[in-house]
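User: Continuing from earlier, I have the next pair ready.

Assistant: Great, send them over.

User: Here they are, in order.

Assistant: Folding the first of the pair now:
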Amino acid sequence: MNLYAIETGHFKLDGGAMFGVVPKTIWNRTNPADEKNMIDIAATSLLVEDGNRRILIDTGMGNKQSDKFFGYYFQWGDHNIDKSLAAIGMHRDDITDVFMTHLHFDHCGGSIQWNKDRTGYEPAFKNAKFWTNENHWKWATKPNSREKASFLKENLLPMQESGQLCFMQRPAEGNFKANSELGFDVLFVDGHTEKQMIPHIHYKGKTLAFMADLCPTVGHIPVPYVTGYDTRPLLSMDEKAAFMQQAADKEIYLFLEHDAHNDICTVKHTEKGVRLNQIHTFNEFINI
């Protein structure tokens, strides 16, 4: 198995929205804001190459939205999927599976692109299956008013229309699915959005959890630090508390999809609860 960090782009989000009820005087220490109260955010995907399968976990915002849309998110840097894939000698057409932790635009927007004539949309990975789960698909395609702006039909419906959409089956009991259809374990969580999926990849005797929005950045490790975007924040706290206990007990490595300055971290038990242990670059992790 080979793992690759795929930078899809960087943007900014309102720090208050990213930390909910946590005061700025606290979160600004780990995630410093600019003069507009915006903090740096990454959209880093993970490519899992396992045998003949090349599985891309999340795809970032993509590039098909309007300038007005992107103007809300203050994009910065020059990263994109194509450039990142080319750097490891790969192309979009090499991807066999796209696994989407959930269908908010900043996690799945890159899955769909304009067609050649810009008259409609098509899959950005023509040889890939697109993986979500049935409960989340129904939630996303018939969105509640709180999340409607995050579930964009142009990101979703072309997956179904192409025939490339696949549903991962939920575990019969509990919320943890071992050895899923893609070969890695998946934790299902409902606090941020219905049935978000958190992959757990076993690599060289270590476990790497792709954290998506269960823990977006190093600054979000403490249990009460949940985003204002979470639909069920109290449930988010319970889910994160349970996960962090396991992560500290089992030395799970956390892949921080949205952290623009820290790739991977571990956590430890302290008198104040689970807190940051060590930070690693991605290259450090794959060579540990």
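And the other member of the pair:
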Amino acid sequence: MPQMLLTNARIATMVQSKGYGLIEAGAIALEAGKIAWVGPEMDIPPLYQEVERHNLAGRLVTPALIDCHTHLVFGGNRAQEFEMRLNGASYEELARAGGGILSTVRATRAASEAELLAEALPRVDALIAEGVALVEIKSGYGLDHETELKMLRVARQIARERPIEVRTSFLGAHAVPPEYEGRAEAYISEICLPALHAAHAEGLVDAVDGFCEGIAFQPAQIARVFESAKALGLPVKLHAEQLSNLGGAKLAARFGALSADHIEYIDEAGVVDMAKAGTVATLLPGAFYTLRETQMPPIEMLRKHGVPMAVASDANPGSSPLTSILLAMNMACTLFRLTPAEALAGTTRHAARALGAHDRGAVMAGQRADLAVWDVSHPAELAYRIGFNPLHRRIYGGVF
């Protein structure tokens, strides 16, 4: 028998390719942590008539939200670099001067696991408070063997400390550390690939990521990392075409990547390859906003070729110090011109696909019972409001 029945709800099922899939005056039966049935309240099957009920008083129910691209585990902050950018320094100039990612590398290397966990938990709590039940967390601020593993251990610990599922991505190919300056190939061989194998052996890796950019790694170098990932049976994803077009999205598609992320500078050939490969385009408006970029992702081109678009916070200390998935949705609409329905799909159904999490992201029978109950009358309000959190209750694994 189902554990409970949620009644008197407006349900945005998000099962359709377009729109919200709204069910007015709907009900949802939950059993053993999964959705057992969903439909109009007037059609509740006899089997569910006598179970415990929770009247949601007409509130909106959506799938719990998913943040599919974050860097939540790191040491220190980069507020001073924020100030420098406002005084005219570019992201690339800061990176080449030893700031950017490398400044966070120094702070992260110096921090203990306990310190990194203590710093990360408030950021995770902010996402949970906005209805997030699944979050991806990357390494990439260690760039040495032990710190990369340290970050991934902390990410795993977060899931034991908080009611949230964490998917980890090994991002050893994030930047070339100072001790390997000018020797990117040696870094890949001597640090990145051995650390990947060690992290995999310890059960710390769910996917493998890389940063394909002029200030990071070339496509051929990323391909070496992806080949190792595939040999280990791990899916891949990629930071691609954020600052220029090196063909990263095409590379990601060639390896059947779960997602290619940022993609402001992608061309149509890259979009076509992503469509053929089923690779999700993960849009990161927080970085676009923070860096005051002007090159937008080609939204119409992605629509034209049917590439699913996820939306994520890209929470990180430098280019996107954002821990609000609701604000990311608003930014995706306001800055990139997504529709509110696309933004919600981007943080539910498509975000799940970007993580290979096929058992969530929609309100339908058989899916994991991760739900968000909102004090709003229409799902468009989730992307419309700025600085306002209308979450009434988050249901995680069927726990009300």
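Worth noting for the second one:
Residues 214 and 244 are 8 Å apart (CA to CA). The mean pLDDT is 96.
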